[in-house]
Specification:
Structural class: alpha+beta
Number of helices: 8
Strand order of the largest sheet: 9-10-11-12-13-14-15
Helix content: 25-40%
Order of helices and strands: HEEHHEHHHEEEEEEHEEEHEEEEEE
Number of domains: 2
Distance between the termini: 125 Å
């Protein structure tokens, strides 16, 4: 055992010792003569060797203790869990190899491109497994290569359908670029270069562009500008305002809109934009130009209407005199000196206004407390 060899078994030791004893036997006197009975001695030693071998190889079986109820439940759970895992593995293999092949590819949305164009960039093919198709699809390649698509979502429907849901970009404004225009989406993406602004979309005034490549997104020094433009575009679309000819964001602390080339709307700080736009449109439609004469021009300041509930209008110096509406109550009468602009109080709600009177050369502030301030003098309503 010291030299690396395996230890001898009891049987082997006995056989070696037996051989040595047989060699050392001395002759004995038997009835038939005097000699060494080597054969008989070997038979006897062999029987003993077999007994030792049997003892060494014999396995003793002990009676096991019976399982407790807890052990029995645990073993049963393990057994069922193993079966469940095996079933899952078999089901997964079948699902990925034999079942759920893609038989239909459905494109939802996407009015600017053919379905084949969209599918070509999706990474989805017929006869692929629907699970792996959806998992390894490439919706980002669709938006990268097709500029009029804003976002894409790819999903599957068991047993055989892949659905590509497309959200189109919304052309919202243009930017002058030489003799042509860049068509821009609400999210600030360059959709294409167009020769003229035939849809009469608002023209954006902003800083110099870093890129004019189709598919790129506009980059501005102020990272908040894309969100501001998106909010303006969404508000104009939601409220169906089609008269805006320009958007000026050269100064983000004083955002301006050009209404029909006649009225400049000052939104001021880019906060509560939808509220300010709705207020401005209602003032124009119901106060300044209710008869749609389209002769009113000037500056409408709604920058503070979300906080002070006050909006101000100043006619252009060259504008024709505004139409005068006869007052119906004492509060509707005109007060004040010639200061050159107008204001009114809309404190009850953005779409509820008093029947104030406006002229082309003065303004008056109406408040709920009955005090009228024209900027120079203060009057108390009778």
């Amino acid at each position: 055992m010291d030299n690396g060899k395996r230890p001898l078994s009891r049987e082997e030791k006995f056989r070696r010792e037996s051989e040595q004893r047989i060699k050392n036997l001395k002759p004995k006197d038997y009835k038939d003569g005097y000699y060494i009975d080597e054969y008989g001695e070997r038979l006897k030693q062999e029987r003993r060797a077999k007994e030792i071998h049997k003892q060494e190889t014999e396995v003793i079986h002990r009676h096991k203790k019976p399982l407790t109820q807890k052990q029995f439940k645990l073993r049963r759970r393990l057994f069922y869990s193993l079966i469940f895992v095996i079933v899952l593995i078999i089901g997964a293999v079948l699902s990925l190899t034999v079942l759920f092949k893609t038989e239909k590819i459905v494109v939802e949305g996407g009015k600017y491109y053919y379905e084949d164009q969209i599918i070509a960039f999706s990474g989805v093919e017929l006869q692929q497994n629907i699970f792996t198709s959806a998992l390894f699809s490439t919706p980002e390649k669709i938006t990268e290569n097709l500029s009029y698509i804003e976002s894409v979502k790819i999903s599957f429907t068991i047993p055989d359908t892949i659905t590509i849901k497309v959200t189109d970009a919304v052309p919202s404004y243009v930017i002058k670029s030489g003799k042509s225009y860049l068509l821009i989406s609400a999210k600030g993406r360059i959709l294409e270069n167009i020769a003229d602004n035939k849809d009469k979309l608002p023209e954006l005034k902003c800083d110099n562009l870093t890129s004019t490549k189709t598919g790129d997104y506009l980059s501005f020094s102020d990272e908040n500008i894309p969100d501001i433009l998106s909010e303006i575009s969404n508000s104009l679309n939601k409220n169906k305002v089609n008269e805006i000819k320009g958007i000026d964001i050269t100064n983000t602390a004083n955002v301006k809109l050009d209404y029909d080339g006649r009225i400049q709307i000052n939104l001021g700080m880019p906060e509560d934009i939808d509220y300010k736009i709705r207020t401005a449109i209602i003032i124009i439609n119901e106060k300044l130009d209710p008869n749609k004469a389209e002769t009113i021009s000037g500056t409408l300041d709604v920058s503070a209407c979300n906080t002070t509930k006050t909006s101000r209008y100043k006619p252009a110096e060259t504008a024709a005199p505004a139409t005068t509406v006869q007052p119906t109550t004492a509060a509707d009468s005109y007060y004040g000196a010639d200061s050159g602009d107008y204001s009114w109080d809309d404190s009850t709600d953005y779409d509820v206004y008093n029947d104030d009177i406006y002229s082309d050369d003065a303004y008056s502030d109406y408040a709920d407390d009955g005090v009228v301030d024209d900027g120079e003098n203060t009057y108390v309503e009778e």
